[in-house]
Write a structure and sequence with these properties.
Helices cover 39% and strands 12% of the residues. It is of the alpha/beta class. It has a single domain, classed as Phenylalanine Hydroxylase. The strands form 3 sheets. Strands 8-7-10-9-11 form a 5-stranded mixed beta sheet. Strands 1-4-5-6 form a 4-stranded mixed beta sheet. It has a two-stranded antiparallel sheet with strand order 2-3. Helix 11 links the parallel strand 9 and strand 10.
């Protein structure tokens, strides 16, 4: 049974990115449902599932936020929904052998995530709770920052209940069930990475109370590790970031293209580095191990935020003189503006 943490009393460090928060909760028989409800806060009511998506305007896609926790409507998934899952799962699993870190592949197998149909989250929750104490909950779309942090701090991972449409196989402007479930959830089976994710939530609550600049700096850390991180292994660089493992194009680009930089992990460097949300990344940061992430997030970050307030940020593709460079990118195809 996961231990519920009062985030008002304790915040270790770290946060999450509002563009990548979604939820999902397993449907099953009434006993399974009650077992899951035990892990939810008292005021977390279940709502009828709605599909909350970005709104397209003349200025592009505008995020729409929702706080509702919903039951996974598994029986309502169509044959097309299951076919989309099957197509994406099969394509990515084949592509990721030799590219994703072995921890990701092994964890996906261990939790029984397969291609035949969209998994039932009640089934996955039994594996997660036994291994690391995490629980999946269902959401309708993007969560406000503080809601997302609170879920992570209490070892609840939000997963969007709906999956993209067949015509969106290769691109979606927001996270859906496939990104959240295929990309994020497997490494929650890894005890070290699972602890790191909780540390993000705890630190996110703290950063939210400090201000917008702290949140922006913390978001960069999430972006360059949880979403777009690489890890150095005896077999070479491998992928662990969810935004990469759930994307065919980025899986190839991050390891095989000459265009991006691949730079050793450095906490302060990352928190000063802007990033891309509209194209492949210009820079990927490489960790030595998941333990390195935990160690980096142990200190109180308040002094870091004070230091960073007096420093300028770095462009997404710029290499610094003291970087540990695995590969200096050629910059081919880079847009000159648009870093965030």
């Amino acid at each position: 049974m996961p231990i519920r943490i009062n985030t008002n009393d304790y915040c270790a460090f770290t946060a999450d990115h509002r563009k990548f928060a979604s939820l999902l909760r397993g449907a099953g028989d009434i006993l399974r449902l009650l077992a899951l409800i035990e892990n939810l806060p008292e005021n977390l009511a279940m709502s009828t599932p709605q599909r909350v998506e970005h709104q397209l305007t003349d200025k592009g896609h505008v995020p729409v936020y929702t706080t509702a926790v919903v039951e996974q409507p598994w029986d309502s998934y169509t044959a097309s929904d299951h076919a989309v899952w099957r197509t994406l799962f099969r394509r990515q699993r084949e592509l990721l052998v030799g590219r994703a870190c072995q921890e990701f592949l092994d964890s996906q197998d261990a939790m029984g995530m397969g291609e035949d149909a969209i998994p039932k989250f009640a089934d996955l929750n039994r594996q997660l709770q036994a291994r690391t104490g995490w629980t999946l909950i269902g959401v309708q779309g993007l969560l406000p920052e503080l809601d997302f942090f609170e879920h992570l701090a209490n070892r609840r991972f939000p997963v969007t209940w709906w999956i993209r449409k067949p015509e969106q196989l290769d691109y979606l402007s927001e996270p859906d069930l496939f990104h959240d479930l295929f990309g994020h959830v497997p490494l929650l089976m890894n005890p070290v990475f699972a602890d790191y994710m909780q540390a993000y939530g705890l630190g996110g609550v703290k950063a939210h109370g400090i201000g917008a600049d702290a949140l922006a700096q913390l978001t960069r850390l999430y972006w360059y590790t949880v979403e777009f991180g690489l890890i150095d292994t005896p077999d070479g660089l491998r992928i662990y970031g969810s935004g990469i493992v759930s994307s065919k194009g980025e899986s190839l680009h991050c390891l095989e293209s000459d265009a991006p930089n691949r730079i050793g992990f450095d906490l302060h460097r990352i928190m000063r580095t802007r990033y891309r949300i509209d194209t492949f990344q210009k820079t990927y940061f490489v960790i030595d191990s998941f333990e390195q992430l935990i160690k980096a997030t142990e200190p109180d970050f308040r002094p870091y935020y004070q230091q960073l307030a007096e420093q300028t940020s770095f462009p997404a593709g710029e290499v610094q003189s003291d970087d540990r460079v695995f590969h200096r990118g050629s910059g081919d195809g880079w847009l000159l503006d648009g870093d965030v």
